[in-house]
Amino acid sequence: MSKGQETKASILDASLQIASRVGFDALTIGQLADRTDMSKSGLFAHFRSKEQLQLQTLEWARERFTDVVVRPTLAAPRGEPRVRALFERWLDWEQDGLSGGCVFVAASIEYDDQPGPMQDELVRHQRDWTEFIATVAGTAVSEGHFRADLDTEQLAFALQGLMLGYHHAHRLLRDPRALERTRAGFEQLLESAR
């Protein structure tokens, strides 16, 4: 990685931390300048607009999510072990050090009623994620770990609901049993898939 790429990665890491805490709309070049000890004009050269800063931060989050969740999931053995790996890697992402929690959950709430490039990209990312879950569940069907008539899209929907429930219970409600309850819900979901 070149020095310029390292600088950009460092800037985007800081931007992602800010967005996870205050949201994408509140993310500004000025706020990022304060956080990174860089000049506004230097940051403007990287992004050119607030919207580009937001879009590049969202894409950076997707790249990190791919590194933390998707690639390790695909390295797991096919079938139910891969479904379990997906769940565990997602929990790793949820606890990955973003001060405000999962930036995709926060952005989903922030942009659900705001048409435009950010919503478009977020919808694309979330559809890809749901499709990935269904595909991974499909490997469990083809390996004979899950029943042949399993609706993998329904499983993906239910798993997403479980993940959102965990985020809500853990981050907002500070429920000390959030992880325990989420793991129990996951086991019930797998049992219904067999």
UniProtKB/TrEMBL annotation:
Highest taxon of the lineage: Bacteria
GO molecular function annotations of the record: DNA binding
Residue ranges of domain HTH tetR-type in the record: 5-65
Keywords: DNA-binding, Transcription, Transcription regulation
Keyword Repeat: no
PANTHER family in the record: HTH-TYPE TRANSCRIPTIONAL REPRESSOR NEMR (PTHR47506:SF6), TRANSCRIPTIONAL REGULATORY PROTEIN (PTHR47506)
Protein name per its UniProtKB record: TetR/AcrR family transcriptional regulator
Key word Membrane present: no
PROSITE patterns: HTH_TETR_2 (PS50977)
InterPro entries, per database record: Homeodomain-like_sf, HTH_TetR, Tet_transcr_reg_TetR-rel_C_sf, TetR_C
DNA-binding region: 28-47
